[in-house]
Amino acid sequence: QVQLMETGGGSVQPGGSLRLSCTFSGYNFITGCMGWFRQAPGKEREGIAAIDPDDATSVAHSLKKRFTISKDDAKNTLYLQMNNLQPEDTAMYYCAVEKNSRFLMVMRTNNLDAWGQGTLVTVAS
User: Fold this and answer.
1) CA distance 10 to 67
2) What is the C-alpha separation between 22 and 77, in angstroms, rounded?
3) pLDDT of residue 103
4) Bridge partners of 35?
């Protein structure tokens, strides 16, 4: 059973940075993809970024200049570096696994197999 745990959220001022981490277990990341999505109150899920087993990455177009996804296979950990955070980035952030497909690589969240409990990011002055 796949288990994922996100950490690194918090409160920052506009312009600040955060790095989210997601440690996972029960999953051998050799197919599909992993990534991040977020959900703000009253809004739909939004795919943010994804990475495949060969380190190919994809980031939502509107976030490309500020967000970076990476992974450390030895640590079974996924990262999301977020720079120049803005109030509109306030949301719960989740990491997710898509075992046998790669819809998250194009920011679609309708085929996820598992996700963590999320970590809250709040951006306010």
Assistant:
1) 16
2) 5
3) 93
4) 50, 96
